[in-house]
Amino acid sequence: MKYLDEFGDPELARRLLDEIHAVTTRPWAMMEICGGQTHSILRHGIDQLLPESIELIHGPGCPVCVTPLETIDKALAIAERPGVTFCSFGDMLRVPGSGRDLLSVKSAGADVRVVYSPLDALNLARENPDRQVVFFGIGFETTAPANAMTVHQAERLGIGNFSLLVSHVLVPPAIAAIMESPRCRVQAFLAAGHVCSVMGTSEYPPLAQRYRVPIVVTGFEPLDLLEGIRQTVVLLEAGRHEVANAYPRAVPDAGNPAAIAMLGDVFEVTDRTWRGIGRIPRSGWRLSPRYREFDAEERFAVSDVRTREPAVCRSGEVLQGLIKPHECAAFGKQCTPRDPLGATMVSAEGACAAYFAYRRLDLARRS
Amino acid sequence: MSGGLDFEGWTCPVPLRDTPTVVMGHGGGGAMSGELVEHLFLPAHGTAGNTVLGDSAVVDVGGARIAFSTDAYVVKPMVFPGGCLGDLAVNGTVNDLAMAGATPLYLSIAYILQEGTPLTEVRRIAAAAGAAARAAGVRLITGDTKVVDNGSGDGVFVTTSGVGLVAAGVEIGPHRATPGDAVLISGDLGVHGVAVLSVRAGLEFDTAVSSDTAPLNGLVAAVLATGADVHVLRDPTRGGVAASLNEIARTAGVGVSLEERRLPVPGGVADACSLLGLDPLEVANEGKLLAFVPRDDADRVLAAMRGHPLGAGARRIGVCVPEHPGMVVARTALGGTRVVNMPIGEQLPRIC
To answer: What Gene3D superfamilies does the annotation carry (chain A) (predicted)?
Structure first.
């Protein structure tokens, strides 16, 4: 994968930065949707190298961050049941529910396992027919195809002791919700490249026109990000509200038709609550009626969950790009990656964690 | 920073996190491990206070300066590309002694075996331990064996302890890090951690990376033979270079400034870390050392390292500074800066 190094080349980055400086004449505020992009921007110090008049607003695209508290509490309740093997990607284990996280449930004796693919969880179900194996299926359009495939396989192979706790969310309705907010300052979006590699770009032109914002499909390596920012500034300066693709090496306009077909079969669109943001209509996926028997929420009938968010946490405003992480009073004090109050401080892709990780020095100098 | 953000106090003296039980992060070599030691073990043992927490303790015994160290090994799987539990356990304690500038001499070894473990596996681990001891020039002179019920252990756990002699005039420890010191690394980063991950159940991936487990006492001897006033030596094992440098920075009250472009991260490690969402600086090494030496001594120490087979890839990666005490800051390849953090607990591969 020498390929990746080439997309971090400092010389080429310098040239792109020079171009960005040359074309920028006014202040602009653009939002990168994806937490992976936020992380990469801060990790490489890209925000420090842009013209001061360009503000990057960090978006809600961190799957760990926006998974609703209620779903996490349900996960904790299911994981504690005898006979259950609860499987999750690693970074969900530290996300606090109402007072606990999956790691502490594990240490108290629950069978909680980190897996690297939902298909691993399905294999566990096949190998352990006396256990109920549950996979925590969260994330955006990027992680959904593998989860859809797994449920499809479970049905095809008749693996009845497997189920999925689903909390998938979708990017385009979130863009609409952000633009509808009266406090919204976003003038352009860097769309999440890997979401588009699944879904394609066709969902974005109507958003660009309706809200009069350019939307540029952008990747994750330093040069990808700089090229996405450059194209965004060019469109902003020209007053063009268009969709552009700055990540064509991974994103065909049609996306991945096989994945889209599988998603359409296994999931159906539903309203979703986003942690810290609220309920967004038609902003997520749940299992379609044909696959409903694999829905862990139905199988374990966890409906009497009462949630409790820390009052001081302002992650909702962070996720909407209304405040920067360090503008929250709890940031770096009661709330650290070690003792997070909100999910934005947990995931490496959460904006609060990224600021804490990479920008402590700048913030300390400022305070 | 009064009235500002409380960055300094974020792991210490924060009390032990409010979990009633041990969690895996307590063993990750990062902030949680440190808190367990500081807030539970040291007070319970009655050794809190002026203890310098290095890789070994150095004590005077009958006029001799003895370095003493102990370590437990629970690596899973027990065999991985480039090594196994046996050589890892011997090299680990040899290295902890060597990081105090000691000449390692004698080791003890204790095996905790789970009922049902094939004896061929036990033999393989023991043979590797013996071979590693011979290669390092130390002797395994005492030991113990315990067997636990099936389900009470996980194959084989090994504990080694060791003693070594520290020569007169050698004073090496994290407290001696001084602004102006050059920060050196003896070679490629992250290979042990990636090699183990590559064979871990559920995560198998093809890689040419194999563990760097090796005894570093020869390399340390070569460094000391230069006559340089070596301030700090540290083998960046669990928690990687990030954890080691943060510990040193906090112990000595100095800052560390790294040049990211100078970090020797081999392609296989960079790829695996990129895929799994890990930072190579936080990945474990088992045959590398970090050295803090006065700027004027740096070139001859580097030359000595490069003249040794285990230090051929040695290079300068940064400098010890008076600014931002307790903090490690890296200049990124693009020219920005970022903080390099103390890892918290276990490394958790990311979701997407």
So the answer is: 6.10.20.100, HypD, alpha/beta domain 2
Contact A4 B324 (CB under 8 A): no
pTM over 0.90: no
- In chain B, where are the structural domains located? 1-51, 56-166, 174-340
Give per-residue pLDDT as tens, B83-134: 999 999 999 999 999 999 999 999 999 999 999 999 999 999 999 999 999 9
Let me know if domain B174-340 sits in CATH 3.30.1490.10: no
When pLDDT is cut at 50, 70 and 90, the band that residue A98 belongs to is: confident
Judge whether A338 lies within some domain: yes
Query: What is the chain B residue with the closest CA to A194?
Result: B352
Point out the residue among A89, A103, A367 whose CB comes nearest to the CB of B351. A89
B338/A104 CB distance under 8 A:
no
d(CA B237, CA B288): 8
**Kind of pairing between the strands at B315-321 and B182-185:** antiparallel
B348 → closest Cβ in A45, A94, A331: A94
- The angle at the Cα of B335, spanning B331 to B341, to the nearest 5 degrees, equals 30
Do the domain assignments include residue A367? no
The helix/strand/coil state of A302 is coil
Same domain, A250 and A327: no
Give contacts of B 19-38 with A, CB under 8 A: 19-25, 31-32
Nearest CA in chain A to B346: A90
Domain match, A201 and A235 both: yes
Q: Are residues A205 and A320 in the same domain?
A: no
**Which B-chain residues 265-284 have CB contacts (< 8 A) with chain A?**
267, 270-271, 274, 277
Provide the shortest C-alpha distance from residue A11 to chain B (in Å): 8
Chain B, 291 to 330: residues with Cβ < 8 Å from chain A are: 324, 327, 329
Establish if B151 touches chain A: CB-CB under 8 angstroms.
no
Q: What's the pLDDT at B2?
A: 32
Residue A181's domain is classified under what CATH number?
3.40.50.11740
Report which DSSP code applies to B163: E
Assigned CATH topology for domain B56-166: 60s Ribosomal Protein L30; Chain: A; (3.30.1330)
By Cβ distance, the residue of B1, B329, B333 closest to A367 is B1
Beta-carbon contacts below 8 Å between A and B? 146
Are residues A15 and A72 both part of a single domain? yes
CB contact under 8 A, A104 and B10: no
Distances (CA, A) of A360 to A234, A301, A317: 32, 44, 20
In a shared domain, residues A275 and A330: no
Sheet holding A132-139, edge to edge: A111-114, A84-88, A132-139, A162-169, A278-287, A267-274
Contact A220, A249 (CB under 8 A): no
Q: Does B201 touch chain A (CB under 8 A)?
A: no
Half-sphere exposure of residue B260: CA atoms within 13 angstroms, side-chain side: 22
Among B160, B162, B158, B161, residue whose Cα is nearest residue B112: B158
Dist. CA B256–CA A291, nearest whole Å:
55
Residue of A273, A304, A341 whose CA lies nearest to A77 = A304
What number is the average pLDDT over the span B268-288?
Answer: 90
Measured between beta carbons, the chain A residues lying within 8 angstroms of B338 are 42-45, 357-359
Reading the block at residue B191, the tokens are 């290979």
Segment B46-58, tens digit of pLDDT? 775 445 566 789 9
B271, A115: Cβ pair inside 8 Å? no
